[in-house]
Write a structure and sequence with these properties.
CATH class of the largest domain: Alpha Beta
Mean pLDDT: 93
Largest sheet: 6 strands, mixed
Number of strands: 10
CATH topology of the largest domain: 2-enoyl-CoA Hydratase, Chain A, domain 1
CATH architecture of the largest domain: Alpha-Beta Complex
Amino acid sequence: MADEILVERADGIATVVLNRPHVRNALNLAMWTALPPVFDGLAHDPAVRAVVLRGAGREAFASGADISEFEEVRKDRATAEAYNARTAAAYAAIEDCPKPTAAMVHGFCMGGGIALAMACDLRFAAREARFGIPAAKLGIVYGLHSTRRLVSLVGPSRAKDILFSARTFGAEEALAMGFVDRVLPPEELEPYTYDYLRKVAANAPLSVQGAKLVIDAVQADGGASRREAIERAEIEAFESEDYREGTRAFLEKRPPRFQGR
């Protein structure tokens, strides 16, 4: 299991690698189970300011759940419910990570792989990337949480098209419908992703994390249920050393050196 989810760190950015390239990084139950503690650890690591989620190699981000184990891990209602709870926990761990997250997509991104990518804040794709949700070809109903994320990104009509047809679509179409945020030549995807996140990591962490908190709260219910957390984040940022550093750096016409406190 230790080799199927890899975590690398450099320049304030953590990279979580789905590492089963021999099966296009298909996710087995052990990987779904491992993702929440991985992201929880990164959420509490002060040295990490942003997270990249990617698949090993360039053939696939993730080809979805490993269907070859379904006869064991999803063989009846009880095991299916337990399996779904594990996948839901993985998606939630990524969404709830306070650090900005980006899915870097090479190749195939299908089914559960799409749900993982949607759980990230941003999605950057190589031009040859291919997307699809084949649930209708497997007799599966795509879950409420992931479907809600899909609708929030592409709208209800396009979501119905994707789920009804179970078709595969390319990166340019994904960009046009709002599913991904950037499309780049394959050789430029990795350097672009890390350059972008290094710029994000250079900004004030409390500001970036506060922005994520507010935007996610607005999406959920207009911010009503998290109003106190938002107000607390605003006050903490105003009282932080980083706020004073940002002001001094601006007046002194130099780059700020933020510490996240």
